[in-house]
Amino acid sequence: MSQLNADNKKNKSIKPLKTTVHPTRIIAYLVQVAISVYMYYFLRNHFMMLVLSILAAAPVLDILAFIFLYRAVEVKLEAPEREVVRNTIGFIRLTLKNSSLMVSFDTCVQLDAENTFYNDKSFTILSLPCSARNNYEKNIPVRYYMNGMYKYSINVITVRDLLGFISLKKKVDTSAEISVLPEIDNSHEFDLTDMSKGMTESEETIKKGHDFSDVSDVREYIPGDKLMSIHWKLSAKRDILMVKDRVSMSDQQMVILTELSGSDEEVDEILTLTYSIVDSFVREQTYVRLMWWSEGKFSFEERQIVSRESLRESFSDIYYEKIYNDSEKTKQYMRSIRPELKAYVNVCMRDGEADAVVVEQD
Fold first, then answer.
1. Does pLDDT of 216 surpass 80?
2. Do the beta carbons of residue 120 and residue 103 sit within 8 Å?
3. Does one domain contain both 124 and 167?
């Protein structure tokens, strides 16, 4: 949930925007006309005739001006930062454009907010000034309390005429997305040695200088072969370039399975712990395979994590998944679908809090 959503839930009286006629303004205007007519018949002077003429022409001029204003008003929504960290403040930039010479003292914008991962929706109404031939820009601060993909959109606005008789609804289409990533808890120390049981059969890291391969054959050079694969000593003896064929001797990596099951708050804590654990392995230059069960695809999704950038990208993919209730089926599917994985680290809820457990499959 974001602060924008929380503020809207406190005010239950907010209603979606729609075309609205303001009878009090119309009645007040008619009262002014009636008083002016009475004063004209009582005073019989040219000034009151001028006032009556202005009052009679004002609605017509107001309608003509409103037509130009209604067509000229546009809105644009932008996210200056596409990624923010949970429990921090991000900004949404809203720009109201008016290319006409007319003005409106009350232009309302319905800003819809949705966390697509947790299916949490809300909206708020913003009243903005609309000046002639001007762009009004507003940076809206939002504090994010939960992870997820936040989508902000504006699909409808209302523009009010200068006399205030009517607020007419106008459909627009502008949106912005922000990915909220978990914060990294540096104060929490993880036992990476114990988690190494979740490795597959051979170790692989991405440390520079490590060569996890072995020579399987020696053959003649083929254009396109890497220079580092040339066997220089053998090439010197045979007077022809010879190349070492290498095969990888390391299919091992840290396998981490994160569960997307439970309540919204539980899943949020699981994701936060997963992010911190994977980030710890990335800093140790350990190759990580991040896995999760996809309800929509009914299969395991997996991403190879070799950097913080790939970690952020994988979480953006997770945010488009669906949360499920049965946490046990994740382990059952793992045993039936991926039996070749002898061990992995399962990030799940245990004893009311998120925890990382090493699971060994028989």
1. no
2. no
3. yes
